[in-house]
Amino acid sequence: MNENTVYWIWLSMALGAAARVDEILACFSSPKEIYEADRTNRIISGVFAKPQIDRLEKTPLKNAQVAIETCKRNGWKIYTPDDEKYPEGLRYIPDRPLVLYVDGDISYVNSSVTIGVVGTRKPSYESIKIARKICAGMVAMNAVIVSGGALGIDSAAHEGALEADGKTVCVMGCGLGTDYLRENEPLRRSVKNNGALVTEFAPFASASRTTFPLRNRIISGLSKGVLVVEASERSGCVTNVSSFAPVV
Questions:
Q1: Which of 44, 68, 167, 247 is deepest in the core (most CB within 10 A)?
Q2: Which residue stretches of 16-85 are H helix?
Q3: pLDDT tens digits along 162-174
Q4: Would you call 163 helix, strand, or coil by DSSP?
């Protein structure tokens, strides 16, 4: 963390996940400058919608400070775009996450071949076997498997990587520490010990139907390519994840 971390977190909390931040960050030199700007200057900039300006005013910096203290107590890391360890792939996706909360180690992501593996939550038995086998084979060639930690293909991808003693990253659609999908808690612990849990949502933020499509852009941004094992044509695996990484 650095002195700007608290302002990055504040801006992320005020604007929300996957906000259209590219134009905003091109207009202001830092999130601290946005924090210190008054309402008039924010309006004059022309890069904020009125609801965003209202949220900037209503979001106290203390909320960001609480998030930092929570992460310190739990041993969770915080990376922002001005940190060296912020994943390079995320710098080039539209409206990149302003904050990444990490439980584990992602230091190897920038120097590794990363492959996203996604698919349905209700796969066939054959698809589960295929996902595990392919992921085990890829980590044997020093690839890192990136997936979303959900039931079905996501779980099979993480399990295949772990069974082959490989690295894997789980991108979550909720905050660290959230009591979500209890049946996958043992898997998340294994992922943390052999890779990392990653999210742009603040600690203990709950999951919803909207958070999972948002996290898909992070899976794709972290990945050099995406393998879809089994999914319908209208699945979010195809429509969201494939927007940023080539699908194989």
A1: 167
A2: 22-27, 31-36, 39-45, 50-58, 61-74
A3: 999 999 999 999 9
A4: helix
